[in-house]
Design a protein that fits this description.
The complex is a heterodimer of chains A (278) and B (573). Chain A contains eight helices and eight strands; from the N terminus they run H-E-E-H-E-H-H-E-H-E-H-E-H-E-H-E. Chain A is of the alpha/beta class and 278 residues long. Chain A has a single domain, classed as Rossmann fold (3-Layer(aba) Sandwich), CATH 3.40.50.970. Chain A has an eight-stranded mixed sheet, sandwiched between helices. The longest helix of chain A is centred in the N-terminal third of the chain and has 15 residues. Chain B is α/β, with parallel strands linked by helices and 573 residues long. Chain B folds into four domains: 189 residues, Pyruvate-ferredoxin Oxidoreductase, domain 3 (3-Layer(aba) Sandwich); 176 residues, Rossmann fold (3-Layer(aba) Sandwich), CATH 3.40.50.970; 67 residues, no CATH class; 114 residues, Rossmann fold, CATH 3.40.50.920. Chain B is built from 18 helices and 23 strands. The chains are: A alpha/beta (278), B alpha/beta (573).
Chain lengths: 278, 573
C-alpha cells in the first residue's frame, strides 16, 4: 500500500476528535470507533491523508469522532462518494463506514458496484440488524420474526447474506468482526486497509437499545475455524453454512484494483477544439 | 429564381434509413462552402425502425433557430412519419420529394398543398452496388441547392473513412445519381451566396460545446450515467478528460453519479455530471448535501419532454421548477441556462467558475434542441473564467471550515492539508463543521449560504438584454434565438422591441432586472412549458408591469419565430 505513510507518533488517542459521541450507553459502535483509531495508529496513517466517509445512521456518525478528514453524506450513498474521492485522489487512504440499513437497504446497489469495481478502499458495515436512529425498524439482516411497530409480528422475510453477496459481486477481501473484541477488530481493519482493492468488513455491533437480545452475541462469537481462502467459491460455501458468528478474515482475493486510465500523452486545452474547426 | 437569405430542408426516413446522416453531410458540406446553418434532429425513441428526421436550415447569416416552414422535404420513406405531426411544416411553395414506394404522404403534408414530385429513391439506390437511399436523397438536396459535388464528395470521404472504400465509392455514385435526378426539378428559391468569413468557424453541437466549456472551466472529473439526450456530453468528455489529466467514471445510477462528483470535488477536483430530467430528480437530494456541505459541483440537465420518461428524444423547457425549487429545505444554489449551441460553452464554463468560486452546486439547464443541434457558428471568444476555489492555508490553527466571513465564502481545506481536517456534513453544523441542532447555528449557516450567492457580482452575463422599446419579449434558454429573430423581423417594419433573456436564473437579480425593464410597459413571455413555469418564476421573483401576456406551449413542437412575431404584432396593434 503505497498510499500509507508512517508517522512517528502513533497513539490511538491522536486519531480521536474532541467531539463527544452521541451513541446510546453500551452501543457497540463505541468499540468500533476504538478499533478504527487503533488500526489507524498501528498503520501510522497520517490523519490529513486519511478520509472516513459515511452515510446516515448511528454508525455513520463516526467520521466526526475521528481526527481525520471526514464526510458525513446522505443516506446510502457513502460508497459512491468515496469512489469519486478515491479515483481522483489515489494518494488518500479511504475508509467507508456504514450500517445494515444504510449499506444493505438504501445503499444496496452501490454495495454491488463498489465490490465489482474493486476501487482500493475499505468498507466497514456495523451490522446490528435494526434501524437504530429511526427507533427500531427491521433491516435487510433482521430476522423474520422480529416484532416491530412497522412490522407487527415480524416481516416474515429471511435476512440476506451480505458477505456472500460481496463475494459474488467481486469484493477483494471479506471479513467478519465483533465490536466487543476491539483488538481483534483493529487487527482485521489493519489487514483490510492494507489489502489492495475493495475490502469489506462486517462488524457485528449490538444495538442494546432496540435489540437487547444482541448482548448475547459476546457469548456466540468465535474465531473462524479455518484460515482465509483466496477461492471465492470456497469462501461463499463456508459463509453460507456457518452460524453467522465466525470472526476473522474469510477471503483474501488477488484481483487487480481499479486504476484510472492514464494517457501517456497529455494535450494542451487548445487542441480540444480542433475537431470543431471548419 | 428568387433569392433567399435562408433555405430549410428536411430529410425524413424510418430510423436506420440514414436521414440524420444525410442531414449531417448536407450541413457539413454547406458549412465548408461558407454558409451558416443549423441542424436539429427529431426522432422516435427506437434505435432502429422508428421515425427520424433531420431538420436543416442553411443561411447566409448566423442562425440559432429553425424557420417555420420547410422549402424542401425529402421523404426516403414515410413509415411512422405521421408521428412528427406539425414538427415539419410545409406550405404551397414547398417542394416535397417522395418515393412512390415509400408509403402514403403524411396527412399534414398532403393537406398543405405542396408541390409533390415522385422520385424512386430506393430503386435508384438498389441499382448501385451497396447503394443507400440516403445518399440519393443527399444528392437531390445538393443538386437543388446548387452545392458542389466536390465538397460533398470530400465530406463523404472524411465521414465514411472508417467504413472503407466500397462504402465511400457507393455513396459517391449515389450522390451523383441524386444530383442528376435533381437537374429536372425546381426548388423555386435560391440560397443567397455566403458572406465572407470574418472568424474561425466551428461545426459543433451544443452537447459538445458543453463538454468543452466544462473542461475549460477546470472540470477534471465527470461521473456518467447514460441518458437521452445528455449522453453525448459524457461521450465527448470520456476520451478527452484523460488527455488533460482527468477522469470520467461510469456510475451505476444517477444517485451514484451525483455523489461521486461530490466526493471528487471534496477532494479538490472540479467535477461535473450531465443528465436529463429523470436523472436530475434522482440527484436532487445530494444537491441539498452539496449546498449544506458547500461542495462545488455542476449538473447539466439537457431537458427533454416530461414528466417521467415523457418523450426522451424531444425538447421541452419544463425542468425550470425542479431546478429552481426542487431542493428540500432552504437551499440557495445556482441555476443557469445557455441560449444557443455556442453559448453552451460560455454558460457551462461560467457555471463551473461560479460553482468553484462560491462553493455551491450549479444546475445548467440546456435542452435537447440545442444539445443535439449541430450548428455552424463563429468560434466563441475565449473567456477568463477558470474555477478558482478559495482553499484553506495548510497548517492553519484552529481551522473553521464554515467560518462566517464578510463575503460568506470560507476557505476550504482539501484532504492532504495538515491541520485542515474537518468533517463535511449534511447535518446542520457550526463554523467548525460540528453537527448541531441549535437555532443560532442553523440560522447563521443559512444566512452564510444565502449571502455568498446574493452578494456576488455576476456582471452583465446574467442576461441577454438587447434593443429598446416599451414592449419586451422575455424568454430563456434555447428559445432566445427564435425570439431574437422575431424581434429583428418586426424591427424591419419599424418597431422596436426589447429582448430580455436571463442566463442566470438563480440567484435572481432584481436590480439588474429592474434596470433591464426600465421603460417597459408590456411583456410577452415566451416559453416551451405547458405549465408556463418561466412566467410563474418571473411573477414570483420580479416586479412586472401590468400588461403581461404569455406564449407558451409544451414540447416537442418548437415555438417558431413567426409565432412570436405574430404575437408581438397582434398584441401591439
Amino acid at each position: 500500500m503505497s498510499s500509507i505513510q508512517t508517522r512517528l507518533t502513533c497513539n490511538p488517542a491522536d486519531y480521536k476528535s474532541d467531539i463527544k459521541p452521541i451513541w446510546c450507553p453500551g452501543c457497540g459502535d463505541y468499540h468500533v470507533l476504538l478499533s478504527f483509531t487503533r488500526a489507524f495508529a498501528e498503520l501510522g496513517l497520517a490523519p490529513e491523508k486519511t478520509v472516513v466517509v459515511s452515510g446516515i445512521g448511528c454508525s455513520s456518525r463516526i467520521p466526526a469522532y475521528t481526527n481525520c478528514y471526514g464526510f458525513h453524506g446522505v443516506h446510502g450513498r457513502s460508497l459512491a462518494l468515496a469512489t469519486g474521492l478515491k479515483v481522483t485522489r489515489p494518494d488518500l487512504t479511504v475508509v467507508v463506514a456504514s450500517g445494515d440499513g444504510d449499506g444493505y437497504s438504501i445503499g444496496g446497489n452501490h454495495f454491488l458496484h463498489a465490490c465489482r469495481r474493486n476501487v482500493d478502499m475499505t468498507y466497514v458495515v456495523m451490522d446490528n440488524r435494526v434501524y437504530g436512529m429511526t427507533k427500531g425498524q427491521p433491516s435487510p439482516t433482521t430476522e423474520p420474526d422480529f416484532d416491530t411497530a412497522l412490522s407487527p409480528g415480524g416481516t416474515g422475510l429471511s435476512p440476506f447474506h451480505p458477505l456472500v453477496i460481496a463475494l459474488a459481486a467481486g469484493a477483494n477481501f471479506v471479513a467478519r468482526a465483533f465490536s466487543g473484541a476491539p483488538n481483534e477488530t483493529a487487527s482485521i481493519l489493519v489487514e483490510a486497509i492494507r489489502h489492495p482493492g475493495f475490502s469489506f468488513v462486517e462488524v457485528l455491533s449490538p444495538c442494546v437499545t432496540f435489540r437487547p437480545d444482541e448482548r448475547e452475541w459476546k457469548n456466540l462469537v468465535h474465531p473462524a475455524p479455518v484460515a482465509a481462502t483466496n477461492d471465492p467459491g470456497k469462501a461463499a460455501r463456508r459463509i453460507m453454512t456457518d452460524d453467522g458468528f465466525n470472526i476473522g478474515i474469510l477471503y483474501r482475493g488477488n484481483r487487480r484494483p481499479y486504476q484510472a486510465k492514464v494517457e501517456s500523452r497529455t494535450i494542451d486545452l487548445a487542441e480540444l477544439e480542433r475537431e470543431f474547426e471548419l | 429564381m428568387p433569392e433567399a437569405e435562408n433555405v430549410s430542408v428536411a430529410f425524413v426516413g424510418s430510423g436506420g434509413a440514414g436521414a440524420l446522416t444525410a442531414g449531417n453531410f448536407l450541413l457539413e458540406a454547406a458549412s465548408v462552402a461558407g454558409w451558416h446553418g443549423l441542424l436539429t434532429r427529431t426522432v422516435g425513441p427506437q434505435i432502429r425502425g422508428g421515425e427520424a428526421a433531420a431538420l436543416i436550415r442553411l443561411a447566409s447569416h448566423p442562425v440559432e433557430c429553425l424557420a417555420e416552414r420547410f422549402d424542401l422535404l425529402i421523404g426516403i420513406d414515410w413509415t411512422n412519419a405521421n408521428r412528427f405531426g406539425a414538427e415539419i411544416e410545409v406550405g404551397p411553395e414547398s417542394l416535397v420529394i417522395a418515393d412512390p414506394h415509400g408509403g402514403d404522404l403524411p396527412a399534414v403534408v398532403a393537406r398543405a398543398g405542396a408541390r409533390v414530385v415522385e422520385i424512386p429513391i430506393k430503386e435508384m439506390a438498389k441499382a448501385i452496388p451497396e447503394g443507400r437511399p440516403n445518399m440519393i436523397a443527399l444528392g437531390l438536396a445538393a443538386g437543388l441547392l446548387g452545392l458542389s459535388e466536390d465538397i460533398l464528395s470530400a465530406v463523404i470521404e472524411k465521414r465514411l473513412a472508417e467504413k472503407g472504400r466500397t462504402a465511400i465509392e457507393a455513396s459517391r455514385v449515389g450522390l451523383k445519381a441524386g444530383i442528376a435526378a435533381a437537374a429536372d426539378l425546381d426548388l423555386g428559391v435560391r440560397l443567397a451566396p455566403p458572406r465572407p468569413r470574418t472568424a474561425q468557424r466551428w461545426l459543433v453541437s451544443g452537447n459538445e460545446t458543453t463538454g468543452l466549456g466544462a473542461v475549460r472551466g477546470g472540470v477534471r472529473f465527470a461521473a456518467a450515467y447514460p441518458i437521452t439526450p445528455a449522453s453525448e456530453i459524457l461521450e465527448w468528455l470520456a476520451p478527452k478528460l484523460p488527455k488533460v489529466g482527468g477522469v470520467l467514471f461510469q456510475a451505476e445510477d444517477e444517485l451514484a453519479a451525483i455523489n461521486m462528483i461530490i466526493g471528487a470535488s471534496y477532494g479538490g477536483t472540479p467535477a461535473l455530471t450531465a443528465t436529463s430530467g429523470p436523472g436530475l430528480s434522482l440527484m436532487i437530494e445530494a444537491l441539498g448535501l452539496a449546498t449544506a456541505a458547500e461542495i462545488p459541483v455542476v449538473v447539466v440537465d439537457v431537458m427533454r419532454a416530461g414528466p417521467s420518461t415523457g418523450i426522451p428524444t424531444k425538447s421541452e423547457q419544463a425542468d425550470l421548477n425542479i431546478a429552481v425549487y426542487g431542493l428540500h429545505g432552504d437551499a440557495p444554489h445556482l441555476v443557469l441556462a445557455p441560449q444557443s449551441v455556442a453559448d453552451c460553452l460560455f454558460t457551462t464554463q461560467w457555471a463551473v467558475y461560479l460553482a468553484e468560486t462560491l462553493q455551491a452546486p450549479a444546475i445548467v439547464l440546456s435542452d435537447q434542441f440545442i444539445g443535439q443541434a449541430m450548428a455552424v457558428t463563429d468560434r466563441p471568444a475565449d473567456i477568463a473564467f477558470i474555477g478558482q476555489r478559495a482553499k484553506a492555508l495548510p497548517e492553519a490553527d484552529s481551522y473553521k471550515r464554515y467560518a462566517v466571513s464578510a463575503g460568506g465564502v470560507s476557505p476550504m481545506a482539501i484532504p492532504g492539508m495538515r491541520g485542515g481536517q474537518y468533517t463535511a456534513d449534511g447535518l446542520t453544523h457550526n463554523e467548525r463543521g460540528t453537527p448541531t441542532s441549535s437555532e443560532g447555528d442553523h440560522r447563521a449557516q443559512l444566512d452564510k449560504r444565502r449571502m455568498k450567492l446574493e452578494q456576488f457580482t455576476y456582471g452583465d452575463h446574467w442576461a441577454t438584454v438587447e434593443g429598446s422599446g416599451e414592449l419586451a419579449v422575455m424568454t430563456w434558454g434555447s428559445l432566445t434565438g427564435a425570439a431574437r429573430e422575431a424581434i429583428e423581423r418586426v424591427h424591419r417594419n419599424g418597431r422596436d422591441v426589447r429582448l430580455i433573456a436571463p442566463r442566470l436564473l438563480l440567484p435572481v437579480q432584481p436590480e439588474q432586472f429592474a434596470a433591464a425593464l426600465h421603460g417597459v410597459k408590456r411583456i410577452l413571455v415566451v416559453e416551451q412549458s405547458h405549465g408556463a413555469q418561466f412566467h410563474r418564476y418571473l411573477r414570483a421573483h420580479y416586479d412586472l408591469p401590468d400588461d403581461v401576456t404569455v406564449l407558451n406551449r409544451p414540447g416537442p413542437l418548437p415555438i417558431r419565430p413567426n409565432e412570436i412575431e405574430q404575437a408581438i404584432v397582434q398584441w401591439s396593434s
